[in-house]
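2024-03-11 09:14:02 INFO worker-7 job=invfold-0412 stage=load source=structure_tokens
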């Protein structure tokens, strides 16, 4: 593969760690920030940093809201024992505070003084095994303006996918050019409009409805100047990406946004045009060019809802070798399925059953408990006779004797009274408690 052995990166990375509005109550103040929620017993952002490390990215900016900054900083600078020595010695990581509830493109405006080169935007809830080189090669060999990762969510996210979540994505197959992305929610009951200028330029458009946007993008540095100039660009996905896609085939948009001047002012590669012509014959390159990388065979998913978060945990637990840490105590009379993960310094008493679940670190589980299809975070206490099915129990919660919960989320530090029976409920700690 091209550029497989590259050691010096020409990219910076921006990892977006927002609040996670669709993950209530997991992201309540009593629990952890979204970026630190455990996924298969690693903080969610661990997977982002691992991917960027493989990409040989040396400069990483983590954008997060004020209440999460200190917690994420503590993990990044103190918890890097989870990563190898290359990470410890070569990756420069800055955690930058952005205004609460600001859009992803607004966060880029805050970070603009720190971004000096082409950059990668990575959502912290994305977990993927796609090789970074696939995206990087696609982006730089053809000198693209933007490269976006797309994936087929398959069964992993299907149960959480509403009709409005369907995306219509147009791709020119011959050149892998990304032409448009429209969500069903934006179109409503109207027909999908495809401009004549797009058809005239690209002739054939392959329309996809099963693909999803992974929220992983590579951008030219000049795109940041466009974001800074146009204050109407609030969201990367909803505003910036559609604008760039439209600028590929609409001269009106290209001229209106002053893109040619932005490109000239921020040109970093004087050989770009020559390289493009050598790769693509005598055809003149497009002034704005966006490409799509479709990852269909491996693992890609976003833990951006409670459903997908739970499913990703279960999938990774199933595909991770089952080992019991030395400091963990499991009674010989307890059954733990090979499709489950058990964290460090956890104690599980006798006559318990654990199936398709992830049990965190420093968890205490009493006698005669049955836990299935659930995620139990660190420092949770579960007393005797408790039954949990398809539940997420957040950090430091307590579930008292003989409680039975199904399809429930228990917020951090919440205490479930003994013999509670609940189904499909959010059990949230009162702010005054």
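2024-03-11 09:14:09 INFO worker-7 stage=emit residues=433
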């Amino acid at each position: 593969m091209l550029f497989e052995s590259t050691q010096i990166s020409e990219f910076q990375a921006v990892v977006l760690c927002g609040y996670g509005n669709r993950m209530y109550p997991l992201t309540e103040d009593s629990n952890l920030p979204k970026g630190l929620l455990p996924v298969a017993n690693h903080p969610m952002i661990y997977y982002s940093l691992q991917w960027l490390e493989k990409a040989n990215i040396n400069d990483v900016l983590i954008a997060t809201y004020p209440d999460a900054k200190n917690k994420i900083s503590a993990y990044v600078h103190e918890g890097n024992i989870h990563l190898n020595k290359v990470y410890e010695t070569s990756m420069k990581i800055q955690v930058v505070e952005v205004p609460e509830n600001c859009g992803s493109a607004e966060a880029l405006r805050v970070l603009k003084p720190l971004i000096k080169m082409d950059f990668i935007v990575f959502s912290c809830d994305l977990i993927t095994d796609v090789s970074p080189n696939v995206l990087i090669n696609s982006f730089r060999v053809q000198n693209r303006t933007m490269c976006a990762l797309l994936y087929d969510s398959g069964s992993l996210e299907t149960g959480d996918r509403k009709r409005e979540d369907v995306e219509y994505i147009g791709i020119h197959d011959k050149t892998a050019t990304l032409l448009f992305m429209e969500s069903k929610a934006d179109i409503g009951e109207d027909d999908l409009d495809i401009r004549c200028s797009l058809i005239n330029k690209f002739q054939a458009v392959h329309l996809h409805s099963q693909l999803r946007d992974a929220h992983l993008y590579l951008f030219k540095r000049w795109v940041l100047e466009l974001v800074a100039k146009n204050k109407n660009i609030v969201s990367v996905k909803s505003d910036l990406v559609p604008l760039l896609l439209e600028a590929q085939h609409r001269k009106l948009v290209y001229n209106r946004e002053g893109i040619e001047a932005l490109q000239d002012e921020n040109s970093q590669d004087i050989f770009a045009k020559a390289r493009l012509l050598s790769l693509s014959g005598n055809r003149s390159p497009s002034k704005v060019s966006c490409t799509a990388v479709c990852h269909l065979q491996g693992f890609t998913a976003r833990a951006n809802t409670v459903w997908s978060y739970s499913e990703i945990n279960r999938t990774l637990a199933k595909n991770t070798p089952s080992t019991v840490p030395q400091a963990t105590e499991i009674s010989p009379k307890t059954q733990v399925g090979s499709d489950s993960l058990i964290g460090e310094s956890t104690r599980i008493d006798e006559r318990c059953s654990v199936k398709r679940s992830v049990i965190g670190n420093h968890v205490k589980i009493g006698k005669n408990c049955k836990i299935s299809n659930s995620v139990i975070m660190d420092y949770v206490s579960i007393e005797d006779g408790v039954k949990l099915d398809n539940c997420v129990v957040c950090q430091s919660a307590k579930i008292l004797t003989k409680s039975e919960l199904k399809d429930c989320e228990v917020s951090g530090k919440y205490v479930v009274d003994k013999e509670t029976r609940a189904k499909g409920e959010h059990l949230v700690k009162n702010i005054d408690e």
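2024-03-11 09:14:09 INFO worker-7 stage=report msg="The chain has 14 helices and 32 strands."
2024-03-11 09:14:10 INFO worker-7 job finished
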